[in-house]
Amino acid sequence: MTDPLPMEAAAGPPPGCPAHATAVRLSGLEYQQTPSQLYRSLRRDHGPVAPVLLDNDVPAWLVLGYNEVSYVTGHDELFARDSRRWTQWDNIPPDWPLMPYVGYQPSVLFVEGAEHQRRAGVISQALDAVDQMELSAMCRAIGHSLITSFAGSGHADLMTAYAHPLPMRAIVQLCGMPPGGVDTEDLVRDLRLSLDANEGEDPVAAYGRVQARIEQLVKEKRAAPGNDVTSRMLLDPAGLTDEAAVQDIITVIAAAQQPTANWIGNSLRLLLTDDRFATTVAGGKLSVGQALNEVLWLDTPTQNFIGRWAVRDTQLGGRHIKAGDCLVMSFAAANTDPQMWPEGHVGAENSAHLSFSNGEHRCTFPGPQLGDVIARTAVETLLEALPDVVLAVEADALRWRPSIWMRGLLDLPVSFSPVLG
Questions:
Q1: Which PANTHER family does this one have (predicted)?
Q2: Which of 49, 87, 139, 258 could form a disulfide with 319 if both were Cys (CB 3.0 to 4.6 A apart)?
């Protein structure tokens, strides 16, 4: 890991920035393997709220403290979601890599107040109608189908062959899209690009393709509704427009796919590398559920989230936050805040983590429960089908995605006894 670059190495921040001479770039860094080291150094040098530079040296605040993240996400009247408040828009190019995160869309992610409550209510009602037993059975069937495709070879990359396709197939079926189609696989790829693009990829164009596919889905369900999440959202008495429905369905699919896929992958990594689990899961001493929960504390899939925008000048963590400043929520840093765990031991047995955020804009109920069903079923199905699965490389050779936003493996190579038939 290299040391984060101070602002002096940059060409200089845009005028009026909240950062000062020790601001840290959150792009182009080589800390992806161990981001916890970055969070520790930021806490040491800056406390619970640190000045940072996003892509193109755009200034923001990184909120690291558990109490501070909880405060920001619990006080919408001070730190709101509508990104049009940002004072940096004059410095943001239209092809900015983070535009899919911060470019205002009339979706449940950005609307506020009564409109947010209305839109979140529509999603909640549509998701609450999902039978969790049926969802588990669906995920088990999807899991077995995926495992069958590689079980005879005795080896696989579980990220590409299992962890990513399983939640996507589940959520698109829940939303009323046909499973296994070419357009569904294209949607998986474009969602990843729009949320977590590598260098040289175009997240803005990818998001445009995602939107076009969901626009088509809404058109189809308006004409012929079915027993699916999309149809229930369109038929809700709240009366969503097609534009609102498209934006909110994209939110539902994106929230279910990338984070859940990385939750599955990170949990499988823990189970296969940590002796507490690797030698005991089969015997039932430590549960898959415990591994899933520990991952949410220590390797949460959504490690940083952009963002909140200050409604007015205020104080946070000893910092003066100006109206229109951008705040990035570091859920990963908050979950391992030494103020919460002064002895350095994260109490993974409880569920007070911030991995699903907090407050009115937290992950809409029952989204976290459905994500747990998908992830738990995926992991259990794999371990039951391939009981002798082991890593095919040394644990420290595993590669993490080069991202400050999503915590997930590039690949998870494993080997096992071939299963024929």
A1: CYTOCHROME P450 YJIB-RELATED (PTHR46696:SF1), P450, PUTATIVE (EUROFUNG)-RELATED (PTHR46696)
A2: 49
Residue with tokens 């994209």: 250
The first and second tokens of residue 354, run together, are 């911030």
What is the C-alpha separation between 56 and 404, in angstroms, rounded?
Answer: 15
What does 341-392 look like in DSSP terms, one character per residue?
-TTS---TTS----TT--STTSSPTTHHHHHHHHHHHHHHHHHHH-TT-EES
- Sheet strands (E) in 94-248: 155-157
- Residue 420 placed within a domain: no
Per-residue model confidence as pLDDT tens for the chain (421 residues): 333 333 333 344 444 455 466 788 886 555 666 788 889 989 999 999 999 999 889 999 999 999 999 999 999 999 999 999 999 999 999 889 888 889 998 899 999 999 999 999 999 999 999 999 999 999 999 999 999 999 999 999 999 999 998 998 899 899 998 776 667 778 777 877 776 666 667 888 888 898 999 999 999 999 999 999 999 999 999 999 999 999 999 999 988 888 999 999 999 999 999 887 765 455 554 589 889 999 999 999 999 999 999 999 999 999 999 999 999 999 999 999 998 876 666 666 678 899 999 888 888 989 999 999 999 999 999 999 999 999 999 999 999 988 888 899 999 999 999 988 6
Is 128 inside a domain boundary? yes
Contact 303, 329 (CB under 8 A): no
Quote the number of domains for the chain: 1
Query: CB burial class (10 A; 0-12, 13-18, 19+) of residue 35?
Result: buried
Separation of alpha carbons 255 and 371, rounded Å = 9
For residue 1, is it within any domain? no
Q: In whole angstroms, what is the distance from residue 336 CA to residue 370 CA?
A: 25
- Within 10 angstroms of residue 344's Cβ, the number of other Cβ atoms is 7
Is residue 88 one of the residues assigned to a domain?
yes
Query: Domain span at residue 355?
Result: 7-415
Residue with tokens 């001479």: 21
